[in-house]
């Protein structure tokens, strides 16, 4: 299913330029704003690593890996549509590893496209994504379109005014390929006064982090219970010995 963002009647609003290095050194931050200069979407990650099985110009499928650490252009739409639902959209043009070729004949930018929908009870969720490759001499790559894998289980959503964050997550692509995200923070369908997360912004955790958060207090509680049991046993043993010694002295 094609979700082209070009040649449609959707009105593209003003979009923020690429922004890098806000979350941390080497980090990536992409934002979009509407016509009223309100930020509707923030996508931030410490690292974005792509692992593809790609068909090269020799017609051979080979695995390649690279990072998205620089972008050529970031455009977005705060008032888009996806399958009849309101959607915030991002289109990120980049060269793998930021290695821009010397000329257009040696390579063209690749494109990552993200769609965030809004529907009750969730304020937003990542509904779909695609990665379009192009010829790049550094990878000897061909034009190819990777879409969301049929088996992908998306755990990117939030409710109310919350954002979303996850320490480690991945976007499964077709052809056994993935986009791996580290330390991500996102918010969509918002009306923020600036392209930054508010200081008081609340976040919902991904399922993996939530499970980890639940395990910690359980482990701590079990350790404390074990410690109490050890102290109690030591006390009872000591008391029993004291009684025996008392009897022996009599």
From TrEMBL:
Keywords, alphabetical: Disulfide bond, Glycoprotein, Membrane, Signal, Transmembrane, Transmembrane helix
Could you name the domain of life of the organism this protein comes from?
Eukaryota
| Signal peptide range in chain numbering | 1-24
User: Which GO CC terms are listed, alphabetically?
Assistant: late endosome membrane; lysosomal membrane; plasma membrane
Q: Look up keyword Signal and say if it applies.
A: yes
Residue ranges spanning the membrane: these are: 215-237
Specify the protein's topology with respect to the membrane: Single-pass type I membrane protein
Domain Lysosome-associated membrane glycoprotein 2-like transmembrane: from-to ranges = 216-247
One BP annotation, GO: establishment of protein localization to organelle
- Pfam families attached here? Lamp2_2nd
State where the protein is found. Answer: Cell membrane; Membrane
**InterPro entries cross-referenced by the UniProt entry:** Lamp2-like_TM, Lysosome-assoc_membr_glycop
Which cysteines share a disulfide bond?
A: 40-78
Predominant location: membrane
Family of the protein in this entry = Belongs to the LAMP family.
Q: What is this protein called?
A: Lysosome-associated membrane glycoprotein 2-like transmembrane domain-containing protein
**Which organism was this protein described from?**
Pristionchus entomophagus
Which classification does the entry list for the species? Eukaryota, Metazoa, Ecdysozoa, Nematoda, Chromadorea
């Amino acid at each position: 299913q094609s979700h082209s963002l070009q040649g449609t009647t959707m009105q593209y609003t003003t979009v923020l330029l690429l922004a890098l290095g806000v979350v941390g050194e080497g980090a990536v931050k992409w934002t979009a704003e509407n016509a009223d200069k309100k930020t509707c979407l923030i996508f931030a990650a410490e690292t974005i690593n792509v692992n593809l099985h790609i068909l090269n110009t020799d017609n051979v499928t080979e695995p390649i890996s690279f990072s998205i650490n620089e972008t050529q252009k970031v455009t977005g739409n705060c008032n888009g549509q996806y399958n009849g639902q309101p959607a915030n959209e991002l289109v990120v043009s980049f060269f793998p590893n930021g290695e821009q070729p010397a000329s257009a004949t040696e390579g063209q930018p690749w494109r990552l496209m993200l769609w965030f929908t809004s529907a009750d009870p969730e304020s937003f969720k990542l509904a779909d994504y695609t990665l379009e490759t192009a010829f790049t001499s550094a990878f000897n790559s061909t034009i190819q379109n990777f879409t969301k894998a049929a088996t992908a289980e998306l755990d990117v959503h939030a409710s109310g005014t919350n954002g979303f964050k996850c320490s480690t997550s991945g976007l499964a692509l077709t052809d056994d390929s993935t986009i791996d995200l580290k330390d991500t923070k996102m918010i969509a369908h918002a009306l923020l006064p600036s392209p930054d997360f508010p200081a008081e912004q609340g976040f919902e955790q991904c399922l993996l982090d939530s499970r980890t958060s639940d395990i910690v207090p359980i482990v701590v509680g079990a350790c404390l219970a074990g410690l109490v049991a050890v102290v109690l046993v030591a006390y009872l043993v000591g008391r029993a010995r004291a009684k025996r010694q008392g009897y022996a002295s009599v």
